[in-house]
Amino acid sequence: MEEWIHKISYGNQDISGGIDQFWLSSSLKISPIEQVEYMENLYIENLPFYKDIMKTVKRMMIQTEGDNYKLYGKTGQGSNVGWYVGFIETKELDYVFVTNISDTSADARNIMKDILQKYHLTSDWELSWCFPKCEDINPDFSQSDEV
Asked: 129: closest CA among 116, 147, 142?
């Protein structure tokens, strides 16, 4: 495991927290910028893994598809840290995104959903994939685009 963490330069590359715990609010740390770089490399299939493996991982990440987009994402949860990372393919452009908040991964996912809808990247997005209480998450982006 340590060899692969180093090969992909993932975060601080510290797996000393134990093989079954290092990624769960333990020794392995990664910044949102590093996570964006990792997701971009996965998206363009520029990681030291076989192409078919990366394609399989990407297929497993598909969250929803519309007429004009395909959304790939993955949640992550630690102690009071929620992540939602992925990328979206649209007819015009593709985007990599990372949401990291001091809350749950469900909240991170819902915030990103709202951002993607605000910029009309997922205008036909259905809420069927959403965790319970999606309707309770509706951040006000009128003040700022920063989350």
From this structure: 116
Query: Would you say 109 and 143 are in contact if contact means Cβ atoms under 8 Å apart?
Result: no
| Sign of CA pseudo-dihedral 42, 47, 49, 51 | positive
User: Could you give the CA distance from residue 39 to residue 10 in angstroms, rounded to a whole number?
Assistant: 11
Could you count the other beta carbons within 10 Å of the beta carbon of residue 93?
Answer: 8
pTM for the structure as a whole? 0.80
Give me the numbers of helices (H) and strands (E) for the chain, helices first please.
4, 4
Residue 57: alpha-carbon gap to chain centroid? 13
- pLDDT category of residue 136 using cuts at 50, 70 and 90: very low
d(CA 71, CA 116): 10
Q: What is the DSSP string of 54-111?
A: HHHHHHHTEEEE-SSEEEEEEEEEETTEEEEEEEEEESS-EEEEEEEESS-HHHHHHH
- pLDDT at residue 137 is higher than 50: no
